[in-house]
Amino acid sequence: MCDYRNALGAAPGAWTALCAKQVKEVIAIVPAELDPEVVKLENVIHMQNKIEDCIPNLIEQNLLCDLITCDINKHPKAVWKTVVANLSKP
In the predicted model, is pLDDT for residue 1 greater than 60? Predict the structure, then answer.
């Protein structure tokens, strides 16, 4: 089991809530609002922004993850170039 997960394209939050039951911390990254019940979960951090704008902050704060859950509405190759290569632990 992994400890930390980034949930990309996380709104409204069903996947985020499910992930929160399985890991120590979930960083939900999406410009939209999350369901208020999901926001209340102690191990969920909501970064309300586009992933492209969050990457520098995630790296600076060493918030890299063990697993990325992606529900972004983009072609997988575009997601890989933008996200996975920058957020995965070495």
Answer: no
Q: Which fold has domain 4-87?
A: Rossmann fold (3.40.50)
pTM: 0.78
Q: How many angstroms separate the CA atoms of 80 and 78, rounded?
A: 5
Residue 24 near residue 4, CB atoms below 8 Å? yes
pLDDT tens digits along 54-89: 888 888 888 777 777 878 777 888 877 776 666 555
Q: Where exactly are the structural domains of the chain?
A: 4-87
**Residue-wise burial string across 50-76, b where 16 or more C-beta atoms lie within 10 A, e elsewhere:** ebeebbeebeeeebbbebbbbebeeee
Cα separations in angstroms, 28 against 78, 80: 19, 17
